[in-house]
Amino acid sequence: MSAVPVAGAAPERVGMYRWRICAMLLAATTINYIDRQVLGVLAPFLQDEIGWSEIEYGYIVTAFQAAYAIGLLCTGAIIDRFGTRVGYALAISVWSLAAMSHSLAATVVGFMLARFVLGLGEAGNFPAAIKTVAEWFPRRERALATGIFNSGSNIGAIVAPLLVPLIAVSLGWQAAFLFTGALSAAWLVTWLLMYRAPEQHPRLSQAELAHIRSDPPEPTVRVPWAHILRHRQAWTFIAAKFITDPIWWFFLFWLPKFLHSEHGLSLLGLGLPLVAIFVLADVGSIMGGWLAGRFIRMGWSVNRARKSAMLVCALCVVPIVFAAQADNLWVAVALIGLATAGHQGWAANVFTLTSDMFPRHAVASVVGIGGFAGAIGGMMIATFTGFLLHTTGSYLPVFLMAGSAYLIALLVVHLLAPRLEPARLEDKAAT
């Protein structure tokens, strides 16, 4: 059957099974973020229950970040080796068991071990999901499919503070870890029953398979990391991720503790403020990408449009310096929400820098390297924040760092890539 006529046919004749696969990726990403946030939501109360210090909590968070960084370097090769079906199943098996193992932890070391294994497993989600999209969607649909499954990160950040406190208050904190781990296990069973490669799937029509394979063959040239790292454009992205990703990790793991200690919120009381903060983050993610596109449609160069949008997003984070001293809860929530919106808008543009400066066949490698750098930065700030809070008891220095990080990162980006000129990899692409 010819692919071209089918690709041009009406959507209802092509079939929609690929979107069921996309829904599975959305569910996995949502569960991924719920699992990783359970500890952050429960942290203020586990600190009293287990008796850990601020420094020890920093070590617990650092253990997750270290494993996540290692996982980002390793899981892609594992998924390529065993295939998407088995590779994704291995990743979620690890993080499901790790999530439930938190319920057995009774010491700082126990939580560190559970978080480390969780980080290893959860690092496989995005490489596996992106590879699945490449297998199941033609190029013209991949951005939409990726946007859909990636929205699970914000959905998970919103669901966790609503769901986890209810379970913990009703059944105990151990039940919260068991329940979210069970969600992962349920997804795993569904995945193994439902997923096959498109060519092997019994429920996929020939018309939809032809639609999925309607693109010309994609280049498979591999660019070694050593060659990528010779280019300033790569270090532009790496620096941006290293400087600003830690701020997002701080938001995920320390905001519940901040709201509890500074504003006296109970476990159930955390839900609405955290939901408001992460809904604003979702809005910022959309608006940050829209703003750069709007500037380009106005006739601005990509360089000017991208950096102007990044500047607006960076300025949105600056007012967070006042959140540490805000007496009113909702003033603090508004300032933090504006900052999370700024981060997500910033992140949308930073990820786009890779496609601005690198050919498509190198983008995934650049993103992987940058993700590793961001996780390393997150690991460092987790340990530093623990020591800082233990020593000073104040969140002001951390918020000062957050408020200045994005402007510093934008300056570094501009110095390393003043015109966002493309990297020239062609000569070494096959080495």
The gist of it:
It comes from Coralloluteibacterium thermophilum. The protein has 431 residues and is mainly alpha-helical.
Give me the Rg, rounded. 22 Å
Beta-strand content: under 5%
Q: What's the β-strand tally?
A: 0
Q: What are the secondary-structure elements, in order, as H or E?
A: HHHHHHHHHHHHHHHHHH
The computed structural class is: mainly alpha
Spatial separation of the terminal alpha carbons:
37 Å
For the largest beta-sheet, the strand count, sense and barrel status come to: none
Number of helices: 18
Number of domains: 2
Rounded mean pLDDT is: 88
Stretches with pLDDT under 50, minimum 5 residues: 1-12
Q: What is the name of the CATH architecture of the largest domain?
A: Up-down Bundle
Keywords: Membrane, Transmembrane, Transmembrane helix
Domain Major facilitator superfamily (MFS) profile: 21-421
Membrane topology: Multi-pass membrane protein
Subcellular location: Membrane
Architecture overview:
It comes from Coralloluteibacterium thermophilum. It is built from 18 helices and no strands. The protein is mainly α and 431 residues long. It has two domains: 9-209, Growth Hormone, Chain: A, CATH 1.20.1250; 223-422, MFS general substrate transporter like domains (Growth Hormone, Chain: A), CATH 1.20.1250. The chain is globular and about 60 Å long.
